[in-house]
Amino acid sequence: MSLTNLSEVANQIQKFWAPKFTAQLREDLLLGGLVSKEYQGEIKQGGDTVRVSQVQAATGENLDVGVNADSFNSELLQTVSVDIVANKRAVASYKFADLVEIQSQIDRAKPEVMESLKFAMSQQINNYLYSLVAPSSSNPDHIINSVSAFDATTLKTLRKNAGAAKWPKDGNWYLLLDPQYYSDILGVTALTSSDFVGEQSVETGDIMLRRFGFKILEDNSRSAQHGLAFHPSFLNFVTQTQVSIKISDLHPLGQFGFIMSVDLVYGAKLAYDGNVRHQTVIAT
Q1: CA-CA to 260 of 20 to 30 Å: which in 32, 80, 157, 176?
Q2: What is the reported pLDDT for 269?
């Protein structure tokens, strides 16, 4: 590929990098890749608002044949809507001495620059999503503390709380554990030995354990002794359909070189009943 000017390089990068970058970014986001990403509307720029609607369960009727079963009463469809403002922008950028450096990245099958920028953006988004974690502390308490070592008893408590809170039983209960807690589980024979459990499976590119109804994954973005159990519907995460990649000449600023930035506008918010659809496990 022979690109000779800024416009051509910028167009090629946006055309070939942006779709791939966006797809890989979503795959790398462990928490962001598992929570709900459905919404109504469109995000064109920062500050746009989209909506997530949740249908409330119907009450229904139990009728007696021969008494009152010849007719029924309809219910008005009840929905709960959550408005989410795309008010966050994850950005990562590099400064280059000349255009040739950028051009050389386009020609590579796996450009290191793209990988580095993707990692930086993924880290920023992941930290923000975790900052929204706020489980209920009552009915029942969804915050389990003083867990020095993660074991089967802790896992059973999470399972009991999820059942009591009526998490949807659709096979999508997840548990993300930091490396220490994940290692604790690997040391519990009853949770890992082939004499007690089946084979491991893979999800989002990681080895996944299926135990007590949870899909358990290691999340090395968290500090020691931290766990998050959840149903995907606990958090709504909305993003633009594609990242924006821009290259600018620094000459107008009296400098030589170029800046390449990658950014993605997004937003996130706890769902209507999200506080009872996730739990945390911590040491203190």
Answers
A1: 32
A2: 93
